[in-house]
Design brief:
Catalytic activity: (R)-mevalonate + ATP = (R)-5-phosphomevalonate + ADP + H(+)
Family: Belongs to the GHMP kinase family. Mevalonate kinase subfamily.
Pathway: Isoprenoid biosynthesis; isopentenyl diphosphate biosynthesis via mevalonate pathway; isopentenyl diphosphate from (R)-mevalonate: step 1/3
InterPro entries: GHMP_kinase_C_dom (IPR013750), GHMP_kinase_C_sf (IPR036554), GHMP_kinase_N_dom (IPR006204), GHMP_knse_ATP-bd_CS (IPR006203), Mev_gal_kin (IPR006205), Ribosomal_Su5_D2-typ_SF (IPR020568), Ribsml_uS5_D2-typ_fold_subgr (IPR014721)
Largest sheet: 8 strands, mixed
Structural class: alpha+beta
Bound molecules: adenosine-5'-triphosphate, (R)-mevalonate, magnesium ion
Enzyme class: transferase
CATH architecture of the largest domain: 2-Layer Sandwich
Distance between the termini: 19 Å
């Protein structure tokens, strides 16, 4: 294995169907190729595996001996074999065996990331040691833009590479991407419990996808080719929230009021299906229907209790200024809102809208293309000495997004990413 190498995966925007996607309804999501998580995999001279997550202020090293109680005990052979062949559910037995590796993190926000790391490590590359995994994101974390999924995709890709499960040097095959996506779904399960799989799917494959997880756990993808560049604004409220908690709250609401909530989820699914049809053939004749679906989808999410007063500020302002339709995107509860602009919205009005959000509410706004490159790999022989020096600087210091994009952004930078 020639080290160092890098992996990368984009964030995402759910256009229609968040939360209902968890209940086997279809949903539409697009990758946000310009907002990504990067992972640098380097050799160390230790007998450990190290995790460095500076964006959340977490780093940890596990010595190989800490895994030996699992790997060297023959009683665990069947547990490990079964876990390594199950990409639909977490192995409860392996989960409890791993518990001792992060028990002191139980109460911290880092527990999910540590559990995701150790679970994927022991399943994908248990024999490697003296390796450090460093992560940097240009993606707002915990914002509803798929940051957890982008980390899971990076870990799955890096560990599959280290484990010799990905061997290509010219590009990632569909088989590689399926393997990455399957294990990224397991990583998402470690991070947030009951994901639908849409976040890791669109982060793996890029572009845009109509996604549906069937009741039997199989998944259906319909890729929205040539995704239309719809004029939109992403607003990050900076209000922290947890997808795991929000998804759990909806599950409780469904359990308490099945006759009220089930029809809402079904309506969201129908809305997502119609939305995908429009996005596949967007024109002046159906553009306003797209805006109407955005408005209705947000109203249904409010009914599920996953909006937030801070998100309603964005929705109310876009309504008051009549510049388009706004909905929360991702799990909600804060995080991000997506505003799809009317066709005739002037640049002046957009500037006024963004300025009010940024200056009055200290929100951040992004106008970025949707779709684009999914997970990508930068092999060691494509990293020159001088580039490596700059890359190490990015991962060891708090370099700003502009520098990270300039040096690393797949499809824009000079580095030869494969995807
Ligand atoms: N760059 C990162 N470094 C380390 N951990 C990260 C990073 N980005 C995300 N995470 C992990 O993911 C968690 C946030 O996941 P969460 O699902 O709540 O938000 P999200 O994925 O951004 O939103 P959504 O799931 O609604 O799209 C963080 O608490 C952290 O554990
Ligand atoms: C809230 C949710 O629907 C999307 C989170 O980005 C959860 C999921 O589908 O995994
Ligand atoms: Mg997430």
């Amino acid at each position: 294995m020639v080290l160092p190498f890098l992996t990368s995966a984009p964030g995402k925007v759910i256009i229609f169907g968040e939360h209902s996607a968890v209940y086997n309804e279809p949903a539409v999501a697009a990758s946000v190729s310009a907002l990504r998580t990067y992972m640098l995999v380097t050799q160390t001279d230790s007998n450990a595996v190290e995790l460095d997550f500076p964006d959340i202020g977490f780093s940890h090293a596990w010595s190989r001996h800490e895994f030996d109680h699992i790997l060297k005990d023959e009683r665990n052979t069947t547990i490990l074999q079964e876990a390594r062949h199950n990409v639909r559910e977490l192995s409860p037995e392996l989960t409890s065996l791993l518990d001792s590796l992060h028990s002191e993190l139980k109460k911290s926000m880092f527990h999910h990331a540590a559990f995701c790391f150790t679970y994927l490590y022991i399943c994908l590359c248990p024999n490697v040691k003296g390796i450090k995994f460093s992560v940097r994101s240009t993606l707002p974390i915990g914002a509803g833009l798929g940051s957890s999924a982008s980390v899971s995709v990076n870990l799955a890709m890096a560990m599959a590479k280290l484990g010799g499960l990905i061997t290509g040097t010219k590009g990632l095959t569909l088989q590689d991407k399926k393997l990455i996506n399957d294990w990224a779904f397991i990583g998402e399960k470690c991070m947030m419990g009951t994901p639908s799989g849409i976040d890791n799917a669109v982060s793996t494959y890029g572009n845009a996808v109509l996604f549906k997880r069937e009741i039997d756990g199989t998944t259906n993808f319909e890729f929205v080719e040539d995704f239309p560049q719809i004029p939109m604004i992403l607003t990050y409220t900076k209000i922290p929230r947890s997808t795991k908690t929000l998804v759990a709250n909806v599950r409780e609401l469904l359990s308490n009021h099945p006759n009220l909530v089930r029809p809402i989820l079904v309506a969201m699914g129908q809305l997502a299906t119609r939305g995908a049809e429009i996005l596949n053939s967007l024109d002046n004749g159906n553009y306003n229907e797209l805006l109407e679906l955005v408005r209705v989808n947000h109203g249904l999410l409010v009914a599920l209790g996953v909006s937030h007063p801070g998100l309603e500020i964005v929705r109310a302002l876009s309504d008051t200024m009549e510049l388009g339709s706004t909905k929360l995107t991702g799990a909600g509860g804060g995080g991000c809102a997506l505003t799809i602009l009317n066709k005739d919205t002037s640049e002046k009005l957009v500037t006024e809208f963004k300025s009010k959000l940024e200056k009055t509410h200290d929100y951040a706004t992004y106008q970025t293309d949707l779709g684009g490159i999914g997970c990508s790999l930068l092999l060691n022989d494509c990293i020159s000495e001088d580039k490596l020096e700059l890359i190490l600087k990015i991962f060891n210091h708090n370099e700003d997004k502009a520098l990270i994009d300039e040096l690393l952004l797949p499809g824009k930078c000079s580095l030869s990413w494969i995807f």
